[in-house]
Amino acid sequence: MRALRKRLADADPMAATRVADHVADLPPGATVALYQAIGSELDTRPLAKALIALGRALCLPVVLDTDAPMIFRRWVPGEPLEMDMAGCPAPLPLAEAVTPDLVILPLLAFDADGVRLGQGGGHYDRTLAALRRSAPVGAVGLAFAGQQVGHLPVEPHDQPLDGVLTEKGYRAFA
After folding, report:
1. DSSP assignment, residue 75?
2. What's this model's pTM, rounded to 2 decimal places?
3. What pLDDT does residue 30 have?
4. Beta carbons within 8 Å of 134's beta carbon, 6+ residues apart
5. Residues whose CB falls within 8 Å of the CB of residue 76, separated by 6 or more in sequence, listed in order
6. Which residues, listed in sequence order, are joined to residue 12 by a DSSP beta bridge?
């Protein structure tokens, strides 16, 4: 699935810009968690700009312990980032810790039932489970439309997606 995502990214370098065209279709949320794209993940910069234009605040995940839920820190594009414990760009420790209402997350594959195949570390599943124990938190996968597969197996710890945002638009799952 990593190879497929790489091929899709290489074939459509403007996909992230078209994704941002559908930002108004996303579920509500005053504070939206994004991620800093690594490798062939869809670039979130156009989406970040579009979310800010709609008045939504942004935050990024931070891995402080590889076996614990992530935290989120407020972030504005252009602010400095440092690598967290998982090797992902994250806001500096002085940034305010916040709780997102909507989490937009990367994936390797998704299916029509809202099942997501992640990178295998379990960071988002642990984090969404912890967040959802306190309040409803939306989870939207950010992907190329071509990353959809017929069916993915579900493990007991897997957290479902509420929808997926692709270059072809937003799709909610039942």
Report:
1. -
2. 0.95
3. 96
4. 99
5. 52, 58
6. none
The domain spans of the chain are 2-149
Two structure tokens written together for 156: 């007991």
2-149 belongs to CATH 3.40.50.10420: yes
d(CA 78, CA 71): 20
**DSSP letters of 18-44?**
HHHTTGGGSPP-SEEE-----TTSPP-
The string of DSSP letters for 150-172 reads: S-----TTPPPPSEEEETTEEEE
Three-state DSSP at 146 gives helix
pLDDT at 158: 92
Which is nearest to 82 in space by CA: 59, 101, 55, 62?
62
